[in-house]
Write a structure and sequence with these properties.
- There is one protein chain.
- By secondary structure, the chain is α+β, with helices and mostly antiparallel strands.
- Helices cover 36% and strands 27% of the residues.
- It has two domains: 140 residues, 2-Layer Sandwich (Fructose-1,6-Bisphosphatase, Chain A, domain 1), CATH 3.30.540.10; 112 residues, D-Maltodextrin-Binding Protein, domain 2.
Amino acid sequence: MHPAINIATKAARRASQIINRASLDLGLLQVQSKQPNDFVTEVDKAAEAAIIEVLKDAYPDYGILAEESGQTPGRSGNSEYRWIIDPLDGTTNFIHGFPQYAISIALAKGNQVEHAVVYDPNRNELFTASKGAGAFLNERRIRVSRRIRLQEALIGTGFPYRVFDHAASYMAIFQELTQKTAGLRRPGAASLDLAYVAAGRLDGFWEFGLSPWDMAAGSLLITEAGGLVSDLSGEADYLTTGNLVAGTPKVFLPLLQIVQAHRTGNLQA
């Protein structure tokens, strides 16, 4: 296992201790609303601080892009490496006691994600990947499913809260896929949804308006597990556009085509 994965795993487990303690008494949580349907708690902030402390101690020259604290340069100020962090993906689930949330940590060199960790503290499931070295769940190699027909596929998604202007497009996609797949799921934590595609639990996924920390780690998990990931144009610019489609090699294309067919003209790739 690459040293960066070991450090990211250490950071994720440190954050999980904070999250698990807080989950024992959710009534004490102080919750703030950043915008409609987007919440932050002191747990998000404390978990992020714990992750950054571990990462900076091991790699002080690397930059940081984190959901709550934003972008900060490393000690050298010009490193091409950057950690991309979501300390608690699925905060809304967490504050309601719905056990579907995760910690997501990725290490990117320029615009290329090279290492990824997604940790589910509820199930003690650790998803890891390094570019060119495969994807793993609790150190066991994982692959995307062998499903080849969209009609038999279970597809994940997320509601596009950050792009309300495109709700009509989203609902049109949702309606068509409801008729053309085995089922749709919206669990509420994109990083974990992507990890599930990598592990073969979902056969595909799409969502609009994501942030880099929602998908950086999960996207590498999928490609290293043999799946495909793109933006709405079929290119690899999803970390910039925030729009992502992913799936098994056979499910990906028909899923992408349906999403593209309903894309509004002003929705970026």
